[in-house]
């Protein structure tokens, strides 16, 4: 399933509210289909920690990083945004791992 970020949230991709729309769409798709999700940024520049954290990194509250790697593919994302997304996602993974160790 292809999710075009621009079609879903428009060009306003800086807020957590917009990111939440994306995350909910990804989770709904994963719950209702065996297909992988392809998130197409269409070459847009995001540069928003809030949007990327809420839209993608927080998926780790619901799925593992291994599942994310297998089921969610991000395409046509600006190279600097990809680096930012990787950093945020790894930070969320470390946070999740720390919480699980404390249980």
Mean pLDDT: 92
Domain count, please report it: 1
* Arrangement of strands in the largest sheet: 1-2-3
**Residues in β-strands, percent:** 5-15%
Report low-confidence residues grouped into runs of 5 or more: none
Distance between the termini: 35 Å
Structure description:
By secondary structure, this protein is mainly alpha-helical. It has one domain (2-102). It is 58% helix and 11% strand. It has 5 helices and 3 strands; from the N terminus they run βααβααβα. The chain has helices at 5-9, 16-32, 49-55, 65-71, 79-102, and strands at 2-4, 37-40, 72-75. It has a 3-stranded parallel sheet. Helix 2 packs parallel to helix 3 (49-55). The chain starts with a strand and ends with a helix. The model has no long low-confidence stretch (mean pLDDT 92).
Helix-strand layout with pairing:
Blueprint: E1 2-4, H1 5-9, H2 16-32, E2 37-40, H3 49-55, H4 65-71, E3 72-75, H5 79-102
Parallel strand pairs: 1-2, 2-3
Helix pairs in contact: 2-3
Concise account of the structure shown:
The protein has 103 residues and is mostly helical. The chain contains 5 helices and 3 strands.
Which key phrases capture this entry?
103 residues; three-stranded parallel beta sheet; globular; 5 helices; mainly alpha
């Amino acid at each position: 399933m292809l999710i075009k970020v621009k079609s879903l949230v428009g060009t306003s991709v800086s807020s957590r509210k917009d990111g939440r729309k994306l995350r909910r769409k990804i989770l709904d798709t994963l719950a209702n289909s065996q297909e992988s999700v392809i998130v197409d940024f269409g070459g847009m520049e995001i540069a928003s920690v809030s949007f990327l954290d809420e839209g993608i990194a927080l998926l780790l509250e619901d799925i593992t990083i291994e599942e994310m790697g297998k089921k969610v593919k991000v395409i046509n994302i600006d190279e600097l945004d990809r680096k930012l997304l990787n950093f945020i996602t790894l930070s969320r993974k470390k946070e999740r791992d720390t919480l699980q160790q404390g249980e």
